C-alpha cells in the first residue's frame, strides 16, 4: 500500500469548493506516475480519493447545496444540483473544463500524433480517468492497448451484417453495444460474487474493451449502410485510435484524420447532467455492465434534442441555400432568421441548456476551419450566420442565450472532407461520448456510488405541498 500516495487531481473548482467549506482533503505529495499502465495508475489513486470523499461526507454530508422549485420539477430538472461528476465541469460563462483544463489548454498540453496538431483522444481519456496530463509514452500505450482489444465477436459482426440498411445507424449502434454484453468481464465477475471494492477493476476492463471495439463496430455500420457492406479492414497496431477509425471507414486524408481526433476529443464529455451521460450513469447505478449502460446512453443520444442536433443544423443550412442562395447577404440571413422565428421554428445550433456564451467547442472547430478550409462556401455561410444570428435573436427580447453551440459547426467540417451521410454523424458523437461516460462509470464503481433513485411527486401532491407551505 506504500504506492497509494497521490490524491486524484480534481477539477479546478473542487479545491476552491473544499476551501470555502473549511474541509481538509487528504494531504498528499503530488506524484507524477510514469507507468504506462493506466489501470495501475488508477489503482494508486482510488484509495486516497475514497478516503477523501468519505471524510468530506462525514463532515459536510448535511450541507444544503441548493433548492428545488416547482418550475424545476416541471422543466426537466433544469438547474437542479443533484449529481456528482468528476470528469468535467460545465460553467455557463466559461464552457467545459476537462478535469480542470479548458479545451485550448487540452489542445496545447495533450500529446499529438507524429506531425499532428490536434490532441489524441487517448490522452483525453487518460486525463478524464486520472486527472493527470499523460506523457506521450502513456498515450501510446493506450493506443496499443485499444488496438489489441479491438476485435469484435463473430455474433456481433453477423448481427451488424444482417441489419436492414434502413435501420438508423444509431439504432444499430445501440443494439450492437448491448449485444457486446456477452463479453462483459464485470457481469461474469459479479455472478461469481466479487466484493464491492473490486467492482471498478472489472468495469475498467469492460470500459477499455468497449472503447477499443467502438471504431470497428461503428465503421462496420458505416460500411454496411453507406458503402455496400465492404470490409472495414484490419486494425493497424502501430497507429492511434482515430487513425484506425478513419481508415476503417475508408478515409485516408491526413486532414480528415486530424479533424476526427479533434472531434472525438471535444465531444467526449460535458459534465454529468446531459442525457447520454446521465442515462449511462443511471443504468450503471443498477450495476448493469458498461455495455448495457452505454446502450442506454446511446439511446438518449439518438434523440433530436441531443445528438441529432448537428443534422438539423445542416438541414437548416441547406434550406437557406435553397431559398436565398449560397452567398446571401447579412441582411438576407437576418430576414430569413426572423421569418423562421415568426413561423414558430427555432434556429438550430444556437442556444444551450447551460452555456451562456459561445461554446468553446464551436470556437475550436471554427479555428480548425479558418486554417484548413477558409474559402469553403458552407464555412463562409456558417461564419456569416455567426455574425448575424446572436444579435438578431437578442433583439427579439425573448431569447437570453443566442450563442452558437458545438452542433452549429461540426457537420459542415465533416461534409467538406466528403462525409456527407448526415444520418451517421451522431454515431461519431456516440463513439466520442463513450470516452467520458466510461471514465465516469469507472469512478462510479470505484467510489461505490449507490443506485440512483430520486423521489417523484404527483401534481396533486405538489399542490398540497405548496398550500401547506403557505
TrEMBL record:
Highest taxon of the lineage: Eukaryota
Alphabetical keyword list: Transferase, Tricarboxylic acid cycle
Keyword Transferase assigned: yes
Biological process terms in GO annotation: carbohydrate metabolic process; citrate metabolic process; tricarboxylic acid cycle
ATP-binding recorded as keyword: no
GO cellular component entries: mitochondrial matrix
Catalyzed chemical reaction(s): oxaloacetate + acetyl-CoA + H2O = citrate + CoA + H(+)
Complex formation: Homodimer.
Protein family per UniProt: Belongs to the citrate synthase family.
NCBIfam families registered for this protein in UniProt: cit_synth_euk, PRK09569.1
Protein name per the record: Citrate synthase
Source organism (scientific name): Orchesella cincta (Springtail)
Amino acid at each position: 500500500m506504500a504506492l497509494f500516495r497521490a490524491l486524484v487531481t480534481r477539477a479546478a473548482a473542487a479545491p476552491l469548493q473544499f476551501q470555502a467549506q473549511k474541509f481538509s482533503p487528504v494531504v498528499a505529495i503530488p506524484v507524477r506516475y510514469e507507468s504506462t499502465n493506466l489501470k495501475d495508475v488508477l489503482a494508486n489513486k482510488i484509495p486516497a480519493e475514497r478516503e477523501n470523499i468519505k471524510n468530506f461526507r462525514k463532515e459536510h454530508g448535511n450541507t444544503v447545496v441548493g433548492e428545488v422549485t416547482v418550475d424545476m420539477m416541471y422543466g426537466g430538472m433544469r438547474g437542479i444540483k443533484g449529481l456528482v461528476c468528476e470528469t468535467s465541469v460545465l460553467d455557463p460563462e466559461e464552457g467545459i473544463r476537462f478535469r480542470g483544463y479548458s479545451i485550448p489548454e487540452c489542445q496545447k498540453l495533450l500529446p499529438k500524433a507524429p506531425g499532428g496538431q490536434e490532441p489524441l483522444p487517448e490522452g483525453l481519456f487518460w486525463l478524464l480517468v486520472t486527472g493527470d496530463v499523460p506523457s506521450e509514452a502513456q498515450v501510446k500505450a493506450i493506443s496499443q492497448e485499444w488496438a489489441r482489444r479491438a476485435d469484435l465477436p463473430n455474433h456481433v459482426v453477423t448481427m451488424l451484417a444482417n441489419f436492414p440498411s434502413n435501420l438508423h445507424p444509431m439504432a444499430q449502434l445501440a443494439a450492437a453495444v448491448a449485444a457486446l454484453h456477452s463479453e462483459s468481464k464485470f457481469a461474469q465477475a459479479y455472478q461469481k460474487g466479487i466484493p464491492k471494492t473490486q467492482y471498478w477493476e472489472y468495469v475498467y476492463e469492460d470500459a477499455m474493451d468497449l472503447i477499443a471495439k467502438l471504431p470497428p463496430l461503428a465503421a462496420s455500420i458505416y460500411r454496411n449502410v453507406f458503402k455496400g457492406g465492404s470490409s472495414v479492414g484490419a486494425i493497424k497496431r502501430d497507429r492511434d485510435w482515430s487513425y484506425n477509425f478513419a481508415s476503417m471507414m475508408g478515409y485516408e486524408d491526413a486532414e480528415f484524420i486530424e479533424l476526427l481526433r479533434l472531434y472525438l476529443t471535444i465531444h467526449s464529455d460535458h459534465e454529468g447532467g446531459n442525457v447520454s451521460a446521465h442515462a449511462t450513469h443511471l443504468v450503471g447505478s443498477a450495476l448493469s455492465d458498461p455495455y448495457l449502460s452505454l446502450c442506454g446512453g446511446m439511446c438518449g443520444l439518438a434523440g433530436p434534442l441531443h445528438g441529432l442536433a448537428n443534422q438539423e443544423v445542416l438541414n437548416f443550412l441547406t434550406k437557406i441555400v435553397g431559398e436565398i442562395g449560397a452567398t446571401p447577404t447579412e441582411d438576407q440571413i437576418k430576414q430569413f432568421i426572423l421569418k423562421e422565428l415568426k413561423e414558430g421554428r427555432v434556429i438550430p445550433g444556437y442556444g444551450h441548456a447551460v452555456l451562456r456564451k459561445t461554446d468553446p467547442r464551436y470556437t475550436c472547430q471554427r479555428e480548425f476551419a479558418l486554417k484548413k478550409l477558409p474559402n469553403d462556401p458552407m464555412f463562409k455561410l456558417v461564419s456569416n450566420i455567426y455574425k448575424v444570428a446572436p444579435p438578431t435573436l437578442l433583439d427579439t427580447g425573448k431569447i437570453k442565450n443566442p450563442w452558437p453551440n458545438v452542433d452549429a459547426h461540426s457537420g459542415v467540417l465533416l461534409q467538406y472532407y466528403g462525409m456527407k451521410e448526415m444520418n451517421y454523424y451522431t454515431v461519431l458523437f456516440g463513439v466520442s461520448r463513450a470516452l467520458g461516460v466510461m471514465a465516469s462509470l469507472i469512478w462510479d464503481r470505484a467510489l461505490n456510488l449507490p443506485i440512483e433513485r430520486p423521489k417523484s411527486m404527483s401534481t396533486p401532491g405538489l399542490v398540497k405541498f405548496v398550500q401547506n407551505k403557505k
